[in-house]
Amino acid sequence: MQQIIAMFIVLFPNLVFVFLLIIAWFFEEKNLGRYLKFFFVWIILPIVFINGLIYTFLLPFWSPIDERAHFAYVEFLSEEHKLPLLTDYVSSNDLAIQAKTYPNLSPLSPQKAGFSGTQYEAFQPPLYYILSVPFYKMAGKNFINKIYFLRIWGVIQLLVVVFISFKIFESLKKFFTKKLLFWETLGVALIGMTPSMVVRSVTIGNSILPIIFVGLIILWISRFLVKTKQFTYKEAAVLGIFTGFAILSRFLMVIIIPMILVLFFLIFIKKGGVKRYILSNLIFIALISILLSPWLFFNHVHYNSFTANGQAKKIQAPILNPNNSKIGLTYVKSQTKVSLENLWIPDPGEINWHAFGGFQPITKFLVYFINTIWLLGLIVVIGLLIKGVEKHTKARNIMVSAVIVVFVNYLFLVLGSIINNWPMLLGRYMHPVILGIALLYIYPLFIFNRKMSKVLSLIIVFIALLPLLLNFDYLLSLLM
Predict the structure, then answer these.
(1) DSSP summary character for residue 102
(2) Fewest CB within a 10 Å sphere: which of 65, 70, 321, 374?
């Protein structure tokens, strides 16, 4: 009986999402979609939250991908009122939870625990951890409660990403002229309900916060990319603030800087004004520098460099690259396949699928099908650009931007892995461009739907259910 109840609980949010997709598909045939929009948003957000809560309580802790270390960062900041250093230790409570002896102390002291006893995530920018302190404090003195509160804080961040996604899809309403609500709901399902994204939001860490700022950047850019709003110094300033916060959430987000500078160049090449171009760049860079300077100064004082990435690499090398293996094209080829899989299912070391009976055929099918669709979308956009047949120029700009962002992120991870001889080509490091991938997923389905009969277009509805089937499949594996 308990097993049946548990299965119903994990099935519930997926069934509601399926129902919403079907409603969106048929009701917009009668031009009622606009009346449902408000209702859908405020139904979907609680469903994503409920789904996140299920993950919160089903996933064991600590998650193998550094959850304990990220928790220790928040704990140190809360208790000591200062940022931790790589030379600091975690608390005995953290190790006791890992050893399953809490509330009794761990039999092993942090000083004798080796790598796992250190603050090896202390090199990370501080914004996520500062924002996490109130949730840590609200949980009281029980450390198990603190874990759950911080996991729920991660789910809240995912809700913000989902809400921003709705706004971004809304900016394309002139392009997705039919069934906009359906395409929005599908995109949100891909972002807010696929296992890897939900696991990363639930696992304590700084993975989701930068996606919020990336979403805000895309939303702000759409103001003048889609709506042809006049570009002003205000736009440059806002983009500088969002980019600075993104980098303060995760240093990998420095990749945003050259993208924005190229965007400025393209804007001012068309409309002229070298002076405006230079001033916009200066405003953008100046605001990023102001936001980053306290953290960079802290690093320089304590590590004699502006980031502690080099020191952290030395500490983590025996774990992540114990044989100092040379990373080259062979790694890139094999890891590209793995990283595409881990866009939708958790990394192998995170929640090991083999612990639940392996990477099942149904799961393989769902993952490969989803990847096939969005990669097809990437090819379609490139093809339309080459042919020059896309009529919706403004929307095309957004789709082209999605292709560029996804490609540049992939190239950055590839080059970073090879140059630094460090494994960076990971599925979870592709999540910051998940909004672009969602757009590329929707695009070919939208095109096919325009060319299909009504009967054949129902295939699109079935394909739309794939992210939800993957979510249900994963949750079932956790119950087994």
Answers:
(1) T
(2) 321
Nearest to 249 by CA among 302, 208, 192: 208
Residue with tokens 């499949």: 473
What integer is the mean pLDDT of 145-156?
95
Task: Compute CA 198 distance to the chain's CA centroid, rounded to the nearest angstrom.
Answer: 9
Longest Cα separation, the chain: 71
Tell me the Cα Rg of the chain.
Answer: 23
Predicted TM-score (pTM) of the model is 0.91
- Side-chain half-sphere CA neighbours of 151 within 13 A: 26
Cα–Cα dist 478/311, whole Å: 36
Q: Cα separation of 129 and 78, whole Å?
A: 9
Range from 2-11, 274-283, 370-379 carrying the lowest mean pLDDT = 2-11
Tokens of 289: 């520098």
The least confident of 50-64, 131-145, 329-343, 447-461 is 447-461
23 token code pair = 């409603």
C-alpha distances out from residue 32 to 26, 185, 405, Å: 9, 15, 34
Question: CB within 8 A of 394, min separation 6: which ones?
Answer: 174, 175, 225, 226, 227, 228
How far does Cα 314 stand from its chain's mean position?
A: 27
User: Is 137 a residue whose pLDDT tops 90?
Assistant: yes
Q: Which residues contact 443 (CB under 8 A, 6 or more apart)?
A: 377, 380, 381, 399
Q: Please count the residues of the chain.
A: 480
Q: Which of 215, 207, 239 is nearest to 124 (CA)?
A: 207
pLDDT the model gives residue 238: 92
* Residue 161 predicted with pLDDT over 60: yes
* Cβ–Cβ under 8 Å, residues 28 and 179: yes
Which residues on adjacent β-strands are paired with residue 118? 89
Question: What local confidence, expressed as pLDDT, does residue 440 receive?
Answer: 86
- d(CA 448, CA 470) in angstroms, rounded, equals 23
The one-letter code for the residue type at 468 is: L
Helix (H/G/I), strand (E/B), else coil: 118: strand
